[in-house]
Design a protein that fits this description.
Structural class: mainly alpha
Distance between the termini: 19 Å
Oligomer: single chain
Number of domains: 1
Number of strands: 0
Number of helices: 6
Length: 182
């Protein structure tokens, strides 16, 4: 119960940080950088099966607080989490400099790809009736893409150690509870 509560608080805190800080300072981006970076970092730490409830919870909470309805973001981060898990197993992203470089590359690509998907969806909104609620309005320039990549990279270097420490704390508390019962 303690683990669920702590993870729910962490998810809620990350979503609020995105909505109240990052979106206010960088409104021109239009991409939820912090949730995307958190999904990538958690997937690299936990793998897809253990990360799926966190991913869906964060995505649905972000969509409901930001747009009022679930959007393409929920589908995107679920697919992203599975893809990252698949790639991390195939590329043997264990540790070292190459793993850090690949992780940074995945984070930047994930955030920029979502911005491109939103732009394509927004341009197709008028030709495909009924999906206008799925794609929020977004503008697209090269400098927004560069800013999205830079912000996602900075967020990764901040969030990755935070999430690693929180998972280590949860693992240690689980071990202590198990030893107390024994």
């Amino acid at each position: 119960m303690k683990e669920i509560l702590l993870r729910a608080l962490l998810v809620f805190g990350l979503v609020l940080f995105e909505l109240s800080f990052v979106d206010v300072l960088f409104p021109e981006i239009g991409v939820p950088v912090v949730p995307i970076v958190a999904v990538v970092a958690w997937t690299l730490l936990l793998g897809f099966p253990r990360n799926l409830p966190l991913t869906l919870g964060m995505a649905l909470l972000f969509d409901c607080l930001n747009n009022g309805v679930p959007t393409i973001f929920s589908l995107y981060v679920t697919f992203l989490s599975y893809t990252i898990s698949f790639l991390s197993r195939r590329l043997h992203m264990e540790s070292g400099h190459s793993a850090t470089f690949l992780s940074c590359l995945l984070v930047v690509f994930s955030a920029c790809a979502y911005q491109i998907i939103l732009w394509i969806g927004f341009t197709l909104r008028s030709s495909l009736p009924g999906i206008d609620w799925l794609f929020p309005a977004i503008s697209f320039t090269f400098w927004q893409l560069v800013l999205t990549g830079a912000l996602s990279l900075a967020s990764f270097f901040f969030l990755s150690p935070l999430l690693r420490k929180s998972e280590r704390f949860l693992s240690e508390s689980r071990e202590q509870a198990f030893l107390r019962v024994r």
